Amino acid sequence: MTLPPSSPQTEPTGRPTVPADPQGAPTAAARLVAAVATSLAAILAALSAFAVRVPVALAVLVGCAACTRGRDDPPTDQRLVLAAYSAAREVLEREIIPAFTADHLARTGKRVHIESSYLASGAQARAVIAGFNADVVALALAPDIDRIAAAGLITHDWTARPHGGTFATTLVAFAVRPGNPQHITGWPDLARPGISLLMPNPRTSGGAMWNAAALHSAALRGHAGVSAHDDAAAAGYLRAVLRNVVILDKGARESIITFEKGVGDVAVTYESEIVAGRMAGRQSDTVIPSSTLQIDIPAAIVDAYTDRHGTRDVAEAFLAFLQTTTAQRALVRYGFRSVDPAVAAEPPPAGEPPPLTPPDLFRIEDIGGWPRTQKTLFGEAGLFTRTWEAIYASE
């Protein structure tokens, strides 16, 4: 099958990252197809079921490279295509997908094979809109799913599911060097001269949008060393923080990998990403500021593609499984926070401290919701957009 125009690579950390979307040349594709038409006939027939708008040459070369399960798997009765944001890869691949397929076989007698692709959330949403036939999406924030719905591919109210379509949460947090040598304790420290800061790019990363919304809102709420409810002071704080950014990576996973390579003093990231790094053997400490934003992680069925593939039943089963105790406990083991109160109340995984609830924990709805936040911060005239462009232009 054909996947979004990307394939995972393995960094020295042992954790995967996904490069920017490659660009193919149709003329090169035509020459390639002409040269090996006979051997590709079977492949192209299979690819025809997946109308992904990438050049034929790329489809042939990449094939299922972005999938984590290959052609040598045993025959299956059902197939499901999952498009997820990169930071959820480990828990999905190592625990949730294997547990779901075993559970589905036990309940229905049918084997299901999940083809999974991982990209930065915004890039994944664009791939689905462009034609990547994902039956289910699990992305970093609601606006990315809403964009797929606006394109006419999701036709039901995906927020009508339990917890508004959210299957896990995490917090905006800071990764710092072991022992916290720079004494980073909260948002004011990110604006200190000389601090080297990492964060992903809001143009491609859902995590970056959560990060920027958290730091700006913390300033407005009086937790960033500037006066509360002062728009000018919050804008000045944002400018000071962005001047300290040394690398604006394309995704949350890429940003934390850069930090793990030794770049920067602090990375603004998901709490769950810091835990995932420790599980991979990389040492960093976690700082949760006194005021921070809860990150809600949603999943949805893509109606247009499930109807095309006849996979609605198994897609519904997968989304339901994400809410089960089995899946919720797996999410907690990988640093996420459970949406199930009973699971959330259980003791933490071995080696991890109990989850900290900061004094001023707020949600996106508390700051006006995503439509307002996107416009005021990330639109063409948004504060983050204007501030970053001004800093970049001055360098």
Major β-sheet profile: 10 strands, mixed
Stretches where pLDDT is under 50 for at least 5 consecutive residues are 1-71
Strand fraction equals 15-25%
Calculate Rg over CA atoms: 21 Å
- CATH fold descriptor of the domain at 170-294 and 358-394: D-Maltodextrin-Binding Protein, domain 2
Run of helices and strands = EEHHHEHEHEHEEHHEHEHEEHHHHEHH
- Helix content class: 40-55%
Number of helices: 16
Which CATH C-level class of the domain at 170-294 and 358-394 is it?
A: Alpha Beta
Average pLDDT figure: 84
CATH homologous group name of the domain at 170-294 and 358-394: Periplasmic binding protein-like II
Query: Structural class, from helix and strand content?
Result: alpha/beta
**What is the general shape?**
globular
- Straight-line N-to-C gap: 44 Å
Record field, number of beta strands: 12
Name the CATH architecture of the domain at 170-294 and 358-394.
3-Layer(aba) Sandwich
GO biological process, one term: sulfate transmembrane transport
Pfam families: SBP_bac_11
Organism: Chondromyces apiculatus DSM 436
Subcellular location: Periplasm
How would you characterize this protein structure?
Keywords: Periplasm, Signal, Transport. GO terms for molecular function: molecular carrier activity. The protein has helices spanning 26-35, 37-47, 56-62, 89-108, 121-130, 142-150, 206-220, 231-243, 252-260, 271-279, 303-309, 312-322, 325-333, 341-344, 369-378, 383-394, and strands at residues 9-10, 16-17, 78-85, 112-119, 136-138, 166-176, 197-200, 245-249, 266-270, 285-287, 291-301, 360-362. The chain is an alpha/beta fold. The protein has a domain at 170-294 and 358-394: D-Maltodextrin-Binding Protein, domain 2 (3-Layer(aba) Sandwich). A hairpin with a 5-residue loop joins β1 (9-10) and β2.
